[in-house]
Design goal:
By secondary structure, this protein is an alpha/beta fold. The protein contains ten helices and 23 strands. The chain has two domains: 344 residues, 3-Layer(aba) Sandwich (Alkaline Phosphatase, subunit A); 60 residues, 2-Layer Sandwich (Arylsulfatase, C-terminal domain), CATH 3.30.1120. The longest helix has 20 residues.
């Protein structure tokens, strides 16, 4: 899909669950970088990450035929912007590291699930503190997964004020799991999705200054399980066992997460909601066991195909004056500069991160290319797209080229045939940009 086509309606006010009054603009400072100007009340930032959630598993996208019931996530989408060309990484750790640092995985060494993020990296939360004179309180609740198999590097090491959640890749059991809270650990028997929400509610309720809550649910990541019955609409599910159809359990976990997002929003006053921007994303594509057409086990989570990296992102709330779908190119690294700018930073570009804050109030392309990568321990893979063409390269020397405009699900590798002059030019341009990115 072309990156310069946008379908939105402009509206000055949003009413419903998220009431928005927008007074955002941009100006130029002496360094010719865009400067955020806002009203005197700094917005709260609620950043929600769903674990293993592709476009085929949520309403608002054509991919997938079976969708869970998610009225609260739907409200975030319908009251703001839905990004159709948002790229993350194929697995969770690299996506989280790219947001936390604003850097591509090959720069931080976090290119696959379980890779360790160096404590020398400057985190988004620490950067916001330095840029705003510690104006914001920061918290990370839920999944961390940037310490590898070690529990040494808690989020507090990265300048995050408060952390509670689990440090590994997934909870052992949604009803019995090990929780770390500011350096100490204990076994918790509360349903994990509910516990994360309660922790977020409790922390937000004690804040006296603007806050940035990074809420990272384990849901709908494995283990497949039956959530509390009042939180889902999948019927009377038996306990999950290997070999069973995992789809209803996956959908139930999404619905339970949505239920808990609703619980969180319900605890906020109308004034607090009006002063909060909400960003909701999936960290990578849908798992192979439950991926839906047009994706498959070969093009979903863990791959650099669209089903693995082109994931949902919805933004609404304070400062979002546009409504509809946004097709401009955005990468997960861009959340670093964007969230920092929302918090008051005057820098629109840092590391591999380009702020897309302007897209929340006007349609204007912020980047010309998207980049993603993976290294599962054996083969390095890189991919780059200009929104129309997408190039995939492997260290084995294999190349793939797709024309996403007419082949959005990468069924026809153009390199297997004879390239036209236009296709050759596009391939050459993408190769050149890839060399620049990875230099």
């Amino acid at each position: 899909m072309k990156n310069n086509t946008t379908h939105v309606t402009e509206r000055p006010h949003l009413f419903l669950i998220l009431i928005v009054f927008v007074f955002l603009g941009c100006s130029k400072n002496d360094n010719n970088s865009e400067t955020l100007t806002t009203n005197t009340t700094a917005p709260n930032i609620l950043f929600i990450i769903a674990d293993d959630l592709g476009k085929d598993a949520i309403s608002g996208f054509s991919e997938g035929s079976i969708k869970p019931s998610t009225p609260n996530i739907d409200a975030i989408r319908t009251n703001g912007l839905s990004f159709t060309n948002f790229w993350a990484y194929p697995t969770c750790s690299p996506t989280r590291a790219s947001i936390l640092t604003g850097k591509y995985g090959y720069r931080t060494g976090v290119k696959w699930a379980g890779d360790v993020l160096s404590t020398t990296e400057l985190s988004l939360q620490d950067y916001i503190k330095k840029q705003t004179n510690s104006k914001y309180a920061t918290a990370l609740v839920g999944k961390w997964h940037l310490s590898g198999s070690s529990d040494t590097f808690n989020p507090e090491v990265f300048g995050i004020d408060y952390y509670a959640g689990f440090l590994r890749g997934e909870v052992e059991n949604y009803y019995s799991w090990t929780m770390s809270e500011n350096g100490s650990s204990k076994v918790v028997t509360d349903y994990a999705t509910t516990k994360f929400t309660d922790l977020a509610i409790d922390w937000i309720g004690t804040q006296s200054k603007p806050w940035f809550m990074w809420l990272a649910y384990n849901a709908p990541h494995t283990p497949f399980h039956v959530p509390p019955s009042n939180m889902h609409k999948q019927g009377n599910l038996p306990e999950y066992k290997d070999g069973m159809d995992a789809a209803p359990y996956y959908m139930a976990a999404i619905e339970a997460m949505d239920f808990q997002i609703g619980q969180l929003l319900a605890t906020m006053s109308e004034a607090q909601k009006a002063n909060t921007i909400i960003i909701f994303i999936g960290d990578n594509g849908t798992p192979n066991e439950v991926a839906q057409s047009p994706y498959s086990s070969k093009t979903a989570k863990g791959t650099v195909y669209q089903g693995g990296i082109n994931v949902p992102m919805f933004i609404s709330g304070k400062g979002v004056s546009r409504n509809g779908t946004e097709n401009n190119l955005v990468s997960s690294t861009d959340l670093f500069a964007t969230i920092a700018q929302i918090a008051g930073s005057t820098t629109t570009q840092i590391n591999d991160s380009t702020s897309f804050l302007s897209l929340l109030s006007q349609s204007s392309a912020t980047r010309s290319y998207q980049y993603a990568e993976k290294n599962n321990g054996t083969i390095d893979t890189w991919t780059i797209s200009n929104g129309s063409y997408k190039l995939i390269q492997y260290t084995t020397g294999v190349n793939e080229l797709y024309y996403l405009v007419s082949d959005p699900y990468e069924l026809n590798n153009l390199i297997k045939g004879t390239l036209t002059s236009a296709q050759t030019s596009a391939k050459t341009a993408l190769e050149a940009e890839l060399s620049i990115i990875r230099k």
